[in-house]
Amino acid sequence: MVNLVGSQRMPLALTLTGFIIGVAIFSDVAYVILNPLVHSAAKTMQVGIAVMSTGLVGALQLTHAIVPPTPGPLAAAAIVGADIGQTIIFGGIACLFGSLACWAWGVYFAGPRIKTMASDEFEGVSIDELDEDGPKELPSTLSSYMPIVIPIVLIGTQSVIALAAPEGHILRTIFGYLGWPVIALSVGVWLAYRNIKSKDDKEKAKDAWVESALKTSAMILVVTGLGGSLSAILRGTPAVDAIAMIFSDYGLPAILLPFVIGIIGNMITGSTTVGVITAAALVQPMLSSLALSPEAAMLAGASGSVIIKYVNSSYFWVCTSLSKLSVPDAVFSYGGATLVGGIVSFLTVCTMWSLGLV
């Protein structure tokens, strides 16, 4: 007999794991790492793979899109001039509610309708088997989380102290430096590097990490540069005032604009990163006309950039192929999760905006 309580708790645990890990790791990479655990959990609980994977897929994508220091939201925050610390704090709140909505979609809607079971291909797979030379000496749980947690804490603390401490206070000076994203993320990289135990692996990591960073940052720099250029062009045209007048004349909430642009950017290109940066670039010249804070604009656009993951998204194909779902089932399960999660995250941002928090 299936343990109904366990079949709800385990997907919730996986969803919350995705919520945490997605802050620091690209969503597709994180899903590749966690995929064996998803299959193992589904087999143990005797439930379909969609029950276990749907919430995780949605949560990974939400934090990847909304919460810095992943590259997309970090670049978008820079474009609109949003405070990174506040973006992390309030973006995390929005993602938490969105992730819970993804979990509910998987457990109560998608999961019961999709009959695909866990694959035996991943049974018994562990991280130890990934090393050709034998089991690796793995870091402790605390050491594993530190590269993720410490940069977020430093950036968040910097924003809190900037609001609470008076100008010129020593703590503002100290955390103004330590909480600067470049320094905070550098600390995270150093902590991650310390977790590599083998001397040979450390030497390999130097070149591999630099190569990976250059590949990732090159695309972000190009898209950000193009977005900045587009913002500069918009400032010199009547488009800014015209769009602001449309929202004013029809009584539309200003926060709806970046959300819609984020949806369009993502659905056309299949890229969450392009969606959130495009929304930031287009809305940035209009912030004063729309009476919209940089943080609210960035978070609204990021929430829209998750909607909806389907066949033009590389992340969709990674999750679909590893979970062994058919394309129609994956569209319903994973596309539905990103739709529900993005809407709930946006509604959370709207609530915080209406309360004057962002």
Task: Give your account of this protein's structure.
This protein has helices spanning 4-21, 27-45, 49-66, 71-80, 84-113, 141-164, 170-178, 181-194, 199-235, 239-249, 256-269, 272-283, 287-290, 294-304, 314-323, 327-354. By secondary structure, the chain is mostly helical. It has 2 domains: 4-120 and 195-354, no CATH class; 144-194. Helix 9 packs parallel to helix 12 (272-283) and helix 12 (272-283) packs antiparallel against helix 14 (294-304). The model has no long low-confidence stretch (mean pLDDT 83).
Quantity of strands, as a count: 0
Average pLDDT figure: 83
Strand count, sense and barrel status of the largest sheet are: none
End-to-end gap? 47 Å
* Domains (count): 2
Overall body shape = globular
SS content category: mainly alpha
**How much helix, percentage-wise, in residues?**
over 70%
Global Rg: 21 Å
Please state roughly what percent of the residues sit in beta strands, choosing from under 5%, 5-15%, 15-25%, 25-35%, 35-45% or over 45%: under 5%
Query: Helix and strand succession?
Result: HHHHHHHHHHHHHHHH
Number of discrete helical segments: 16
Low-confidence stretches: none
Key structural traits:
single chain, 358 residues, mainly alpha, 2 domains, 16 helices, globular
List the helices and strands and how they pair.
Blueprint lengths: L3 H18 L5 H19 L3 H18 L4 H10 L3 H30 L27 H24 L5 H9 L2 H14 L4 H37 L3 H11 L6 H14 L2 H12 L3 H4 L3 H11 L9 H10 L3 H28 L4
